[in-house]
Amino acid sequence: MMTNFNDWMALTRLYADYASAVDSGNWNLWPEFFTEQCVYRVQPRENFERGFPLATLAFESKQMLEDRVYGIQETLFHDPYYQRHIVSAPLLHKVDDGRIYSEANYVVIRTKLSQLSTVFNAGRYLDEIVATPDGLKFASRLVIYDSEMIPNSLIYPI
């Protein structure tokens, strides 16, 4: 696993496809990037570095991600906005026992209707990725954002 250029390109494509999906507004695409038993956690950098478990969002299965999608589409009320992810090339830390451990920096730009675009969130992804018959999937995605504050509520996936 991850022994050649094509493998690294598959990892890079996973990151690009993820950003495209969460920027598209088609929220049903988002859970498909994860394994059935997965972790998706959005956490401030300070809590992560101190080993504190408190996270802004924490999901522990693909079904929980699907519930979040339902909430976004059916129950959450908020000012609509667009988001655009800018994601660095992934850094491959190691491949161990069929799992890829990687990270990438990200910036999310938010644009509300009739307003200027602003930086909404910035940080890094810490990922554990596995190969499945359907391609590479996230077994764990930790979204570690740099600021202690987020401007308003976090509705859409980062």
TrEMBL record:
GO MF, any single term: dioxygenase activity
Pfam families from the UniProt entry: Ring_hydroxyl_B
Domain of life: Bacteria
Name the UniProt record assigns to this protein: Aromatic-ring-hydroxylating dioxygenase subunit beta
Family of this protein: Belongs to the bacterial ring-hydroxylating dioxygenase beta subunit family.
InterPro entries in alphabetical order: NTF2-like_dom_sf, Rng_hydr_dOase-bsu
Database matches in SUPFAM superfamilies: NTF2-like (SSF54427)
Keywords, comma-separated and alphabetical: Aromatic hydrocarbons catabolism, Dioxygenase, Oxidoreductase
Cited Gene3D superfamilies: 3.10.450.50
